[in-house]
């Protein structure tokens, strides 16, 4: 880990905040009702990044507009973010309402990791020093890091991602012209009618 300069283009995350909810098998069944399996890596921030949860034999689901990952008590996991752009992005990550950079209350105003173009960031846990982390592990609410460290359980079970672009850099400058053109395509190309036929 090191430090660098990165001027955010905006004070708000690009494309909003993305979330992944997690629980054990019974908890996900209770939270979702019906669900469908999805890939562990999903697009976020308008396609600037792909992100997900990495661990042995994890199952990923989508239900009611929300993403879920199924884990087992004590199982370790990592957060993975891949920068799909050709310019750096800053990513701020949280687990259980705690910022992964310092293990304290998360905020989108806090600084995050800079991910270079085409590179992948893997975060193994909450940073406790420049050289050490407290590993991410699936747990019950009472035995969560948030509860044991801060006595706060209100945000246990959710992982967050906020992505920031760099000031003065067009986040879509990397797109081929054809892709950019298709982004603005209209399903009804004709001019609006002035009268009813």
Please give a handful of descriptors for the protein shown:
197 residues; globular; mainly beta; eight-stranded mixed beta sheet
Topology, pairings included?
Layout: E1 17-23, H1 25-32, E2 36-37, E3 42-44, E4 49-54, E5 59-63, E6 66-70, E7 76-83, E8 89-95, E9 98-99, E10 113-115, E11 120-123, E12 125-129, E13 132-137, H2 145-150, E14 158-165, H3 177-183
Parallel strand pairs: 1-6
Antiparallel strand pairs: 1-14, 2-5, 3-4, 4-7, 5-6, 7-11, 7-13, 8-9, 8-10, 8-14, 12-13
Summarize the main sheet. 8 strands, mixed
Query: Roughly how many Å apart are the termini?
Result: 66 Å
Which geometry do the CA atoms define? Answer: globular
Mean pLDDT: 87
Strand segment tally: 14
Q: Uncertain runs with pLDDT below 50, 5 residues or more?
A: none
Output the number of helix runs. Answer: 3
The string of secondary-structure elements, in order, is EHEEEEEEEEEEEEHEH
Percentage of residues assigned to helices: 10-25%
Classify the beta-strand content into a percent band. Answer: 35-45%
Descriptive overview:
The chain is mainly β and 197 residues long. It has one domain (17-183). The chain is 11% helix and 36% strand. Strands 1, 2, 5, 6, 8, 9, 10 and 14 form an eight-stranded mixed β-sheet that branches. Strands 3, 4, 7, 11, 12 and 13 form a six-stranded antiparallel β-sheet that branches. It is globular, with a radius of gyration of 19 Å. The model has no long low-confidence stretch (mean pLDDT 87).
